[in-house]
Amino acid sequence: MDSSILHVYEDEIQSLEEEIQLLAEKYEESQQESTFFSDEEILMSIKSFQREFQGESKGHECLSDLKVQLESLQTDLSFLMKFTGIQFTSHCKKTVEKTRNRTVQKHRLSGNCHSLSFQLEFQLLEMQNKENVTAVITDLSIVMESGEDSDMSKFVSSTEAHGNLSTFFRSLPCYAEWCEHRRCTFLHFK
After folding, report:
1. Around 126, how many Cα atoms within 13 Å sit in the side-chain half-sphere?
2. Handedness of CA 83, 86, 88, 92 (dihedral sign)
3. Which is it for strands 116-128 and 86-98: parallel, antiparallel or unpaired?
4. What per-residue string of b and e applies to 69-96 under the rule 16 or more CB within 10 Å gives b?
5. DSSP class of residue 2?
6. What is the pLDDT of residues 111-135, one digit of tens each?
7. Is residue 90 a contact partner of residue 109, using CB atoms and an 8 Å limit?
8. Residue 165 CB neighbour total at 10 angstroms
9. Cα(94)–Cα(98) distance, rounded to whole angstroms?
């Protein structure tokens, strides 16, 4: 066999092995995401879809109900954004680990509140026992464009250390509003 033909075959084998590796990784990722739902939830979803498509009239009613629910959720979201001033611009969620009674998800959020933008990254650990589910936030990281404000830096550091997102989201609108007032005041005097 000619060495150039042998080299072509080796290159082809190498590219096929790389493609197999890539497809295996994609398959594993999709398997991890699909294990996020229990077998019971999957069966319930299948039965729900079957019921939805059994009759056209019932399907139209379900579709109109979904539209009403979507409009209601959009109204609620709009109200919350106006009320708090917080607007989320992106959210990414990835399941890192999934076992029978433990789930670890990595979340990445970004958004803004008035004129301040922020980015959050954290892991959500959900543990399930017989009675209830507990959720714990770990590895919280907050990045904000707050300039050189030492008070805000201290607050962010404390929030990251305690993993307390509710305190962060309760305090952020007030802080951002006063930052906006301060900015407008300084612009007025310039």
Report:
1. 15
2. negative
3. unpaired
4. eeeeeeeeeeeeeeebbbeeeeeeeeee
5. -
6. 988 878 889 999 999 988 878 888 8
7. yes
8. 17
9. 11
Q: Is-contact 140 120, C-beta < 8 A?
A: yes
Whether the Cβ atoms of residue 123 and residue 96 lie closer than 8 Å to each other: yes
Task: Report the pLDDT value the prediction gives residue 157, as an integer from 0 to 100.
Answer: 86
Query: Alpha-carbon distance 184 to 190, whole Å?
Result: 10
Q: Say what percent of the chain tops pLDDT 90.
A: 6
* DSSP at 164: -
Sorting pLDDT into bands at 50, 70 and 90, what band is 30?
Answer: low
d(CA 165, CA 142): 10
**Element containing residue 163 per DSSP (H, E):** none
- Residue 118 token pair: 């922020």
- Residues 126, 137: Cα–Cα separation, whole Å: 9
Strands of 102-113's sheet in order across: 86-98, 102-113, 116-128, 133-144
In whole angstroms, give the CA distance from residue 106 to residue 8.
43
Q: Which H/E stretch holds residue 180?
A: helix 165-189
